[in-house]
Amino acid sequence: MNYPSMKKMMICDLSMVPEVEALKDNEIILVTPAGVLIGNPVDTENLGIVATLAKTVADKHREDLKVDLNTLSPGNDGYLALRNVQLRTGAATYNFEELLVFFDQIIGMTFGKSQIAD
């Protein structure tokens, strides 16, 4: 049986940290090959356009494969949907309202208030 990777489980669990009242002002900080991503998890009750489209496509894919929609896909397959995202790479900074980050592109993760110098 294929199980979700420990990496995916940790990312999914830690991405919920900003939902804890005492930690609500924290952001998700991801290290990726493209640079450092700083953002917030999407609100599952109020998905944006990108997250809604991604969920629709993923649900259809899982339906076609006859995979339970409530089961995490195996390995590192999948993504983390973020909102109000900033990508800092070298001297450049890019801002996105929403961004899907695929699990296989995440090298490291932390949370907190971004203290990366502008």
* Mean pLDDT over the full residue set: 82
* Total number of domains: 1
- In CATH, the architecture is Roll
Provide the spatial order of strands within the biggest beta sheet: 4-3-2-1-5
Number of helices: 2
Shape: globular
Number of strands: 5
Please state roughly what percent of the residues sit in beta strands, choosing from under 5%, 5-15%, 15-25%, 25-35%, 35-45% or over 45%: 25-35%
Instruction: State the CATH class.
Output: Mainly Beta
The helix/strand class is alpha+beta
Distance between the termini: 46 Å
Unreliable stretches covering 5 or more consecutive residues = none
State the helicity in percent bands: 10-25%
The arrangement of helices and strands along the chain is HEEHEEE
Let me know the largest β-sheet. 5 strands, antiparallel
Give the arrangement of secondary structure elements.
Elements: H1 6-14, E1 27-32, E2 35-41, H2 49-64, E3 79-89, E4 92-102, E5 108-112
Descriptive account of the structure:
The protein has helices spanning 6-14, 49-64; strands spanning 27-32, 35-41, 79-89, 92-102, 108-112. The chain is of the alpha+beta class. The chain has a single domain (6-18, 27-107), classed as SH3 type barrels. The chain is globular, with a radius of gyration of 15 Å.
Keyword list:
118 residues, alpha+beta, SH3 type barrels, five-stranded antiparallel sheet, 2 helices, 34% strand, globular
Short description:
By secondary structure, the protein is an alpha+beta fold. It has two helices and five strands, in the order H-E-E-H-E-E-E. A hairpin with a 2-residue loop joins strand 3 and strand 4 (about 90-100).
